[in-house]
């Protein structure tokens, strides 16, 4: 049982010869914005190996192909398949970013919303600037705002949980439809404490 990489172009060559299912394990928001043509959405935080295998008629003897944004989540999902006994799991090397860079066919949604990661960067930058301005022109204590934001970034880096991303993900403009429900770009499993909204890979 192995977990390996395959380039986008190599995958296209294989797909032209036989029917292959490509599992996209990103969030619904990311998938809505852009995804590889014919890729099917199966978010990592709701990934049920048995259900997916039955849905797409996957067998443990045939290769399973997985894609995410740049590779990290695909490897996580791929490892789940390997642990479930699938003999060969291949992740798209470089993910959707590499797919787009290779000028391969994609489907783009109508949404003009910036990716969640970029929204977080903008919010963090504005808060840091605001803290500096307040500290310089209003009261020195304003600098604490910038310090607080910095501590938040360190916490997010250490734990993988980003409170700001979770809050921004719940904003109206970040809601999409998935499986008949209106969900945010964060975790779509309301009963799970696994949040993927701060995961950039």
Keywords summarizing the entry:
elongated, 201 residues, 2 domains, alpha/beta, Oxidized Rhodanese, domain 1
Q: Can you walk through the features of this model?
A:
Helix 6 (116-137) runs antiparallel to helix 7 and helix 6 packs across helix 8 (163-169). The chain starts with a strand and ends in an 18-residue tail after the last strand. It has a 5-stranded parallel sheet with strand order 1-6-5-2-4. The protein is of the alpha/beta class. The chain contains 8 helices and 9 strands. It has 2 domains: 2-108, Rhodanese-like domain (Oxidized Rhodanese, domain 1, 3-Layer(aba) Sandwich), CATH 3.40.250; 116-183, no CATH class. A hairpin with a 2-residue loop joins strand 8 and strand 9 (181-183).
Determine the number of helices (DSSP H or I, runs of at least 4 residues).
8
Gyration radius (Cα, Å) is: 19 Å
Largest pleated sheet: 5 strands, parallel
Reading off the top of the CATH hierarchy, the class of the largest domain is best stated as: Alpha Beta
CATH overall fold name of the largest domain: Oxidized Rhodanese, domain 1
Helix content: 40-55%
Ranges where pLDDT stays below 50 over 5 or more residues in a row are 187-200
CA(first)-CA(last) distance: 24 Å
Mean pLDDT: 87
Say how many strands there are. Answer: 9
């Amino acid at each position: 049982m192995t977990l390996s990489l395959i380039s986008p172009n190599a995958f296209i060559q294989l797909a032209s010869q036989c029917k292959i299912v490509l599992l996209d394990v990103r969030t619904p928001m990311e998938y809505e914005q852009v995804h590889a043509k014919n890729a099917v959405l199966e978010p990592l935080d709701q990934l049920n190996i048995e259900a997916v295998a039955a849905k797409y008629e996957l067998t443990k003897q045939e290769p399973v192909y997985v894609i995410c944004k740049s590779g990290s989540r695909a490897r996580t999902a791929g490892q789940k398949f390997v642990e479930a006994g699938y003999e060969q799991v291949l992740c798209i090397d470089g993910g959707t970013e590499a797919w787009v860079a290779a000028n391969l066919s994609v489907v783009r949604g109508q949404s003009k919303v910036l990716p969640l990661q970029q929204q977080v960067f903008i919010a963090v930058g504005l808060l840091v600037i605001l803290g500096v301005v307040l500290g310089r022109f209003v009261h020195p204590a304003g600098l604490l705002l910038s310090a607080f934001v910095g501590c938040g970034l360190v916490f997010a880096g250490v734990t993988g949980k980003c409170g700001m991303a979770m809050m921004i993900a719940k904003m109206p403009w970040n809601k999409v439809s998935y499986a008949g429900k209106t969900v945010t770009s964060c975790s779509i499993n309301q009963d799970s404490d696994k949040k993927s909204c701060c995961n950039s890979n």
